[in-house]
Write a structure and sequence with these properties.
The chain contains 5 helices and 10 strands. By secondary structure, it is α/β, with parallel strands linked by helices. It has one domain: Restriction Endonuclease, CATH 3.40.91. Helix 2 packs parallel to helix 3. The longest helix has 18 residues.
Length: 186
């Protein structure tokens, strides 16, 4: 389980230590709710909210406003199968849509399940990479929802994602494998 990435830096992780490292990096930006063993494979839900607005002279004369949100569902398991992936994907989608604040001023919602496992079946990985869920609300006047997903296979030293999840994959690489992000401690 030696990870070698940029600058010849190596790091050893277990599933648990990788989850801890991700949660530690997320706590600066997300509101994190962690769960005990009884909710496994769900380990945490991380919520991010951002609001912007432009007004003239006073707050009553608002020109526009936008609200953006992301709901990251962190799943931890030893082995990711296709059945487990589909079950967790559907759970994240349903719960994320319940948490979303759709309406005037809503710009986007990202629903992001992230899986951390020792190994992943080929069919589950293929399904993850092919996942494309997108929904617009009122012809995008009330924003849209995009589904990002990624998996870290600890034994394979590999992070994979769907097309929408490339920024998640990049952030995970930076947090877990860059020498700046890890500061020499797993």
């Amino acid at each position: 389980m030696i990870f070698t990435r940029n600058e010849g830096y190596s790091m050893e992780y277990t599933v648990g230590s990788a989850v801890e490292r991700l949660l530690k990096s997320y706590q600066a930006y997300y509101n994190i709710t962690t769960f005990d063993e009884t909710k496994r494979p769900l380990t945490a839900i991380c919520e991010y909210y951002e609001a912007s607005q432009k007004y003239v002279l006073s707050h009553k004369a608002e020109l526009w406003s936008e609200n953006s949100e992301e709901f990251l569902f962190l799943f931890q398991m030893d082995h990711l199968t296709l059945h487990d992936y589909e079950k967790c994907r559907d759970y994240a989608y349903e719960e994320g849509m319940k948490m979303a604040h759709i309406g005037p001023g809503h710009m986007y919602t990202y629903i992001t399940p992230v899986f951390v496992c020792n190994e992943c079946d080929a069919d589950a990985l293929n399904a993850l990479k092919k996942t494309r869920i997108y929904k617009s609300f009122r012809f995008s006047f009330h924003g849209w929802m995009d589904f990002h997903t990624a998996v870290l296979e600890v034994q394979q030293n590999k992070i994979s994602s769907n097309t929408g999840g490339k920024p998640v994959e990049k952030a995970m690489n930076k947090v877990l494998f860059s020498s700046r992000g890890s500061k020499g401690k797993p």
